Amino acid sequence: MPTLVYNIGILQTALGSSPLRGEAQGVNKKYKNAAVLIEDGVIQAVYENGETPALGDDAVLIDAKGRLATAGFIDAHTHLVFGGWRQNEIPLKLKGASYLDILNAGGGILSTVRATRSTGENELFERSMGFLDELMGQGVTTVEIKSGYGLDKTNELKQLNVIKRLANSHKIGVVATYLGAHAIPEEYRGRAAEYIDFIIKEVLPIVKAEQLAEFCDVFLETGVFDAEQSRRLLTAAKNMGFSIKIHADEIDELGGSRLAGELKAVSAEHLIATGEEGMQALSEGGVIAAILPCTSLYLNKTFARARDMIAHNIPVAVATDFNPGSCPSLNMGLCVTMAYLKYRMTPEEILSAVTINAACALNRGDSLGTVEAGKRADMVIWNAYDMETLCYRMGSNLAATVIKDGCIACTNDR
Ligand code: NIG
Ligand code: FE
Question: Does the predicted model carry a pTM greater than 0.85?
Answer without folding.
Answer: yes
